[in-house]
Amino acid sequence: MRRVLISSGSPYEDIVGFSRAVRVGPYISIGGTAPIDANGDTVGIGDISRQTLQCLETIKIALESAGSGL
């Protein structure tokens, strides 16, 4: 099966060698997710609810980029 790497655009992907998600056949794995927005800024410092929502949004975008969804 072909492996498809899904990038989040993070500059750290090349530095440390990770992808936001990897799709192999019908399987999609999501990498560790932090509450970081598209500008690279931490979202919701001190607000676990806001941080959780940001992480879920990041995961949703990665799944959609891999052809799936929540």
- The CATH class turns out to be Alpha Beta
Tally of individual helices: 2
Mean pLDDT comes to 91
Structural class: alpha+beta
Proportion of residues in helical segments: 25-40%
Overall shape: it is globular
Largest sheet: 3 strands, antiparallel
The SSE string, one letter per element, is: EHEEH
CATH topology: 60s Ribosomal Protein L30, Chain: A
CATH architecture descriptor text: 2-Layer Sandwich
Give a written overview of the molecule.
With 70 residues, the protein is α+β, with helices and mostly antiparallel strands. It has a single domain (3-65), classed as RutC-like (60s Ribosomal Protein L30, Chain: A), CATH 3.30.1330.40. The chain has 2 helices and 3 strands. Strands 1-2-3 form a 3-stranded antiparallel β-sheet, covered by helices on one side. A hairpin with a 2-residue loop joins strand 2 (21-24) and strand 3 (27-30). The protein is globular. The protein starts with a strand and ends in a 5-residue tail after the last helix.
